[in-house]
Amino acid sequence: MKMIPLLLMALSLAFPLSAQNRTYSTFWHQRVSLFEKLAVTNEDILFVGNSITNGGEWAELFHNLKVKNRGISGDICMGVYDRLPSMLSGKPAKIFLMIGINDLGRGASPDSIICQTYRIIGKIQEESPKTAIYLQSILPVNESFGMFEGHTRKREIIAPLNHRLERLAKEKKITYIDLYSHFIIPCTNKLDSAYSNDGLHLMGAGYIKWAELVKPYINE
């Protein structure tokens, strides 16, 4: 697709790549400072994302100490991009990426999310070409809980955005994992309340479902 590089060029002018030009939370800096101290090896499998990833006990879910959590609550696409060096220095075997819902919650456009995800994938492929990348769909949301209005009011945008992420994965020759369709209430685009108690984050059953869906890719 020629459209993505053109959008990437335009957004590069609007969003400088230096982390010094962006402000992240104290929690983001706390987590990054820890990740910079923790070694990554070429046998490791990293789950990268925001609070939804942050909440998973991945090593226990997969009974595998090589599966490591690199989620940060509140993170956005460029937050992931800015902290890639600590993850890529050890050339991990696999990266499972889910990012974008907080960007939507902050008012970012789908075009911006696609282009920034493109940057993330490109950086991984450039710095650690042997790392297998798994791009996971953004999960659905549900406004009926009356929480996280900035996120849940974007519910209708998520499915079309996921279709674009799937096309991006195909263009970049990486694996796309559709989680979205497994977490919605049938015949709707709402997050099933069996998996969440706030319309955005997951309960235990949600993490069990997630682990079941990605386990084949962990083991391949």
Descriptive report:
- This protein has a single domain (3-17, 25-219), classed as SGNH hydrolase (Rossmann fold, 3-Layer(aba) Sandwich), CATH 3.40.50.1110.
- Helices cover 48% and strands 10% of the residues.
- It is built from 12 helices and 5 strands.
- The two termini are 28 Å apart.
- By secondary structure, the protein is α/β, with parallel strands linked by helices.
- The protein has a 5-stranded parallel beta sheet with strand order 2-1-3-4-5, with helices on both faces.
- The model is unreliable at 9-18 (pLDDT under 50).
Brief sketch in words of this structure:
The chain has one domain (3-17, 25-219): 3-Layer(aba) Sandwich (Rossmann fold), CATH 3.40.50.1110.
Strand content: 5-15%
Predict the CATH topology.
Rossmann fold
Name the average pLDDT. Answer: 92
Give the second-level CATH assignment, the architecture.
Answer: 3-Layer(aba) Sandwich
* Main sheet record: 5 strands, parallel
**What CATH first level would be assigned?**
Alpha Beta
CATH superfamily: SGNH hydrolase
What is the CA–CA distance across the termini? 28 Å
**Tally of DSSP helical segments:** 12
Order of helices and strands: HHEHHEHHEHHEHHEHH
